[in-house]
Amino acid sequence: MIDWLGSIAPKTLLTLAQSTDPLIRKRVAAYTKTNLDLLVYLATDTDPNVQYAVAQNPQTPIEILHEYVTSADHQLQKATLANPALPSDLLGMVFSTLPESLQPLALAHPHFPLAMLIAYVPSAKGAFLSAIAQNPQTPTDILTQLATHANHYVREQVAKNPHTSRTTLALLAQDKNSYVVEAVAKNPHTPTSVLGDLWLHLPTAHIALATNAKLPVALLEAALASGDRYLWRSLAVNPSLPVHHYLFFAKQQELQIRIAFANNPNIPLAFLYYLAADEKNAVRQAALSHPKLTTSLRELFRYRQSYQLPLHASEDMIWQDFIEALLTLTPKTLVRLVKKQRLEAKTLALLLVHPDYTVRRAIARSSYVSQDILLQLTNDSEAIVRQAVARNLKTGAAILEKLNYDTPSVRRALAENPKLPRYLLEILLHSHDESVQAMAVANPQIQQQELTTYAHSPVILIRRNVAKNPICPESILRDLADDSEASVREAVAKNAQTPADILLSLIHDSDPITSRYAIRAYDHLVQTQEHTR
Predict the structure, then answer these.
(1) Which among 445, 437, 486 is positioned nearest to 465, based on CA atoms?
(2) Whether 154 contacts 179, CB under 8 Å
(3) If you count Cβ atoms within 10 Å of the first and of the last residue's Cβ in the chain, which end, N or C, has fewer?
(4) DSSP state of 216
């Protein structure tokens, strides 16, 4: 499911949850990042569609799910049974109380208690057997048994089940029912040899086979060469479609083929960008609804509605235009794109030339950026960008070692990195630059006995950073709580490891700032202790 709301502040969510438009409230209820308080609030909404959205939200509290699944409203019960996070014990507890028409939905749920499911097999009939055959946790031996059932609906569910054995799938490939064979053709676990046999001997299965991600490349190419446009429509959504055919499908004249290609799970962003500017609204909407797209990227694609791809265009040309469109956005928007979204490496690499350092710094801070890009950023003209690389927890040891020869400001940032290799930390601890040494002292990888030495340093900044260090032992914190410098005592008050009796003494400190922080820390400590009792 696509989160229509993207990334949104809690206050904004609260405003939307109180909207007079039930469609807006429904979208908030379906949003997977909506907090529990709002879900509880929306659970009593007067619009049934809002309640159904709450019922299907994986974050909905179990108390509400229990209330919904035992309600007299069968549609609400049905929506709740579709919740992927419905717990096993709740399903087992309410199963016998459900209307008979809804019991198969519970049996098909992947969290239905396995022991109950197995025990139910001998007495199950019709829709109940189909539900058991559909359940992904049904044991292989039971699926094999159900593969010979007289009811073709049961056999079809076995053919769809991802846990059905390869031997059983090969058997079902010879079934007389076309729906069963079609399900085998679509199952990605069907042996390649069986897929090949179906292609050669059963032309009616070609359309189903064309969607199978495990279809051999030779057969994919044969399907393309066939010229069958119905077959092409199936090929367009195949996640294993060879890359060199992407442009062919993106430029197909037939509307339904372009729509199908826009739904391909592995379609690159560049082609989504192209299809989002299609002349037909149905294609544009299909591209803009793709799970790969984030809210920010959808905004970007809508911004470029007028784009037309030349007949001779390559994917590189598409990417170049894509980047040009990115560069027309404000630096603030680009920073949001980099921070909130997982832009492809090719996009990030091209954005390294952006003239605004805030964009390059955002890339340097990213948790998903490649080592190659981080290495390039170590040569950035702005120290603030190189500092971001130095602080990034994903930066490799070789890059961190290179930054050790950079300016003092970069070396200070390097000293802050909690993933810094020990040998580099030791170099920084013995730096002649007191500011670099002070930052290294605050690193949690320093050894406690070393902190004892630095706690008596004549440099105030070093003593303060010893007091800030989360691994600072109690004995040193006690000594530094009596330090002559207020900023050092303030650091002791802020340290989460400072015991209650030290905080009590600092509450009466002559420095008002230290006193205020000590009061806050002591109050938090008391509340935490009460909560854990």
Answers:
(1) 437
(2) no
(3) C
(4) -
Per-residue confidence at 194, pLDDT binned at 50, 70, 90?
very high
Neighbours of 96 (CB within 10 A): 9
Angstrom CA distances, 398 to 29, 80, 116, 378, 429, stand at: 47, 51, 55, 11, 19
Q: How far apart are the C-alpha atoms of 521 and 477, rounded to whole Å?
A: 14
| Tokens encoding 476 | 């040193």
Residue located via tokens 């029912």: 177
Q: Are 520 and 511 in contact (CB under 8 A)?
A: no
CA distance 433 to 443: 16
> For residue 284, what are the CA distances in angstroms to 2, 304, 316?
16, 11, 21
Question: According to the model, what pLDDT value does residue 368 have?
Answer: 83
Read off the DSSP letter of residue 171.
H
For residues 131 and 116, give the distance between their C-alpha atoms in angstroms, rounded to a whole number. 13
Give yes or no for residue 340 having a pLDDT over 50: yes
Nearest CA-CA partner of 517 in 472, 481, 469: 481
Angle at 374 between CA 370 and CA 377, to 5 degrees: 145
DSSP state of 346: H
Q: What is the pLDDT of residues 468-523, one digit of tens each?
A: 999 999 999 999 999 999 999 999 999 999 999 999 999 999 999 999 999 999 88
Rounded to whole angstroms, how far apart are CA atoms 416 and 531? 33
Rounded CA separation 424/480 (Å): 27
Q: Is the pLDDT of residue 253 over 50?
A: yes
The amino acid at residue 103 is Q
CA distances from 248 to 22, 86, 207, 224, 365 (A): 42, 43, 19, 10, 38
pLDDT tens, position by position, 515-532: 999 999 988 888 887 766
Q: For 127-168, write each residue's pLDDT tens digit.
A: 999 999 999 999 999 999 999 999 999 999 999 999 999 999
The candidate with the shortest Cα–Cα distance to 489, out of 453, 515, 450, is: 515
Q: Which residue type sits at 482?
A: D
Detail the DSSP E strand segments found in 244-403: none
Report how far residue 388's alpha carbon sits from residue 380's, in angstroms, rounded to the nearest whole number: 11
Classify residue 260 as exposed, middle or buried by CB count within 10 Å of its CB (0-12, 13-18, 19+).
Answer: buried
Q: What is the structure's pLDDT at 318?
A: 61
Q: Which residue has the higher pLDDT, 302 or 11?
A: 11
Cβ(417)–Cβ(400) under 8 Å?
yes
The closest of 481, 498, 499, 478 to 490, measured between CA atoms, is: 481
Distance CA 119, CA 94 (A): 16
pTM of model > 0.85 = no
User: For residue 4, is pLDDT > 50?
Assistant: no
Residue of 514, 471, 468 whose CA lies nearest to 489: 514
Contact 69, 90 (CB under 8 A): yes
Phi, psi of 381 (to 5 degrees): -70, -20
